[in-house]
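Researcher: Structure prediction, please.
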Amino acid sequence: MQKAGNGIMTKEIYKELYWSDLYSLSDIAEVEGVCPMTIFNRMKKAGIPRRTSAEALRVERCRAKRSRIRLQFHKDNPNYGIGKNSPRWKGGIQIDKQSGCVRVYVPHHPLANKRGYVKQHRVVMEKELGRYLLPDEMVYHKDGNGGNNDTDNLRLFVNQSEMVAYLNTQR
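Model: Predicted structure follows.
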């Protein structure tokens, strides 16, 4: 069988899902864990023609069939799509675009969010202290760079009001 790109599916599987099973590009992309444009490009490269708009309307009538087939891809892996088993896994690191704060995947941490991520500066400070931080304790970046989590750049405050008082004295 010929590979249809870097994905796990072959040209034949793409063709079967798209034409026989009436999957949309978005549905195939969801199964493979990539964006629809990636599937479009792979199918174009593999020489698989696209449906006309009239044929595309039939796709909406076949939801039950698609959901039954989708389960076949996941039946061998009950944890498919969770944590390290997700095709979208990026190594367990997220960066907040606004603050530059780095979050790391620590699913069993007491202060982890619902997706299992904790702010990295808290984890670094916890390792330095040898204990978990209390929810009220605040970690301050001395240089103002949320991505610089070096222990020399971090300072721990008992609560937010103590940190604000410190910042007011620095002005």
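Model: Confidence is low (pLDDT under 50) at residues 1-5.
Researcher: Thanks, that helps.
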